[in-house]
Design brief:
Layout: H1 3-12, E1 20-21, H2 28-40, E2 62-64, E3 70-72, E4 81-85, H3 91-98, H4 101-111, E5 115-120, H5 132-141, E6 148-151, H6 156-161, E7 165-166, E8 168-172, E9 178-182, H7 201-210, E10 223-226
């Protein structure tokens, strides 16, 4: 999308659909390095974010899925896990579902034995909120194939992971360590024509982690609509 067209698109979006760019997470090694550098010049390091850090254990959680079943992260130990924050009414989410991009990555996850948990953290009355039956209808209507859809109307799970946007993606390895956090790809627009031109950060990270390889871009900038917390 040309710069002028992108600017026009942003102006036309309603406030709740405006593009939000999250900050990429730093690895623990980088945080320690920054803290050491600040110490050498007599400045205090900023407090560590409550969000999970790359290479560190991903926070365990218990959440109910769209069927009313309680699921935990720890029950999937031994498998690669993808967490996907979604909002079906967000144009940045729609970009990846209307094009079939998200579903193709979900199918690839399924083929490689990866657990895919879609998370809806929209609060009641906010854009994107659905109950269990509506979540199942949504999954079917957009031909999605997640392992499960987790309902997080209180926002507890979203805040636990520092989820900022929809979509916002996380990849956890078989030992329970966070190995990727960030955007689905490298081009922050709602234009489906940009998908083939973008670097597919999530797909690359998911495959690398599932194959036991290092992730080339472990922390990238997420983009999309702001998560509609309470």
């Amino acid at each position: 999308m040309a710069a002028s067209a992108c600017l026009r698109f942003r102006r036309n979006l309603s406030p709740e659909n405006r593009l939000v760019l999250g900050e990429p997470l730093m690895s623990t090694t980088r945080i320690i390095t920054v803290a050491a550098l600040l110490a050498t010049i007599g400045l205090a390091a900023p407090a560590l974010s409550d969000a999970p850090q790359i290479g560190q254990p991903a926070p365990d959680f218990e959440a109910k899925d769209s069927k009313g079943t309680s699921l935990t992260l720890s029950q999937y130990r031994g498998k690669t896990v993808v967490l996907e924050w979604t909002n079906a009414d967000c144009p940045f989410t729609q970009k990846h579902y209307s094009s079939g991009n998200m579903q193709s990555i979900q199918a690839l996850a399924q083929k490689n034995g990866v657990v895919w948990l879609t998370v809806i953290s929209s609060a009641p009355g906010k854009q994107g909120y659905v109950n269990g039956p509506a979540a199942d209808v949504l999954t079917q209507s957009r031909s999605a194939v997640p392992t499960a859809v987790l309902l997080d109307p209180s926002g507890r799970l979203g805040h636990l992971y520092g989820a900022k946007t929809t979509p916002h993606m996380f990849v956890i390895d078989k030992n329970g360590a966070l190995q990727y956090a960030g955007g689905i790809d490298s081009i922050a627009t709602a234009d489906t024509s940009d998908i083939p031109k973008a670097e597919p950060y999530l797909k690359e990270a998911m495959l690398a982690v599932s194959q036991g390889n290092p992730v080339a871009h472990a922390a990238t900038r997420p983009y999309g609509c702001a998560v509609k917390y309470q």
